[in-house]
């Protein structure tokens, strides 16, 4: 749902981050396969670090709220209801965290070098320029 909003331009101030299993888009940034400059290396490091934080957060939510983990990656409800379920799980997770209720065992996310093989789709020029603008700002 967020990706569709980004794709049609309804959200202008953000990006999704994807691993090598995704094609570069103007709204979905992927790592560079062969960084050449310090800025490109910093971009890849920032991308990996951010994805790691997000993956850890998703792992914690799935660990605490099994309704998110046992679905095979898909909640079988309307997208609007799924958004409410995930939001409620996030709010409840924050409440339990503030009250010191232990999470239980959390499985560590896989290291970044276990990303799927790169998708060899030629990105369009606008997508390449969008990623270059982000890299230039680092």
From TrEMBL:
Major subcellular location class: nucleus
Stretches assigned to the DDE Tnp4 domain: 14-94
InterPro entries: HARBI1-like, HARBI1_dom
Cofactors, names only: a divalent metal cation
Annotated coiled-coil segments of the chain: none
Location of this chain's protein in the cell: Nucleus
Keywords: Hydrolase, Metal-binding, Nuclease, Nucleus
Source domain of life: Eukaryota
Keyword Nuclease part of the UniProt annotation: yes
Family membership: Belongs to the HARBI1 family.
Protein name: DDE Tnp4 domain-containing protein
Organism: Labeo rohita (Indian major carp)
């Amino acid at each position: 749902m967020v990706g569709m909003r980004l794709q049609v331009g309804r959200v202008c101030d953000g990006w999704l981050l994807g691993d090598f299993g995704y094609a570069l888009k103007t709204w979905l940034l992927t790592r560079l396969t062969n960084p050449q400059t310090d800025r490109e290396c910093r971009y890849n490091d920032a991308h990996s670090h951010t994805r790691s934080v997000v993956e850890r957060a998703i792992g914690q939510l799935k660990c605490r709220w099994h309704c998110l983990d046992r679905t095979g990656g898909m909640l079988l409800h309307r997208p609007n209801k799924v958004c409410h379920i995930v939001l409620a799980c996030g709010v409840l997770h924050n409440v339990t965290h503030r009250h010191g209720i232990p999470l239980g065992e959390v499985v560590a996310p896989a290291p970044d070098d276990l990303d799927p093989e790169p998708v060899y789709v030629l990105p369009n020029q606008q997508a390449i320029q969008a990623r270059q603008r982000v890299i230039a700002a680092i």
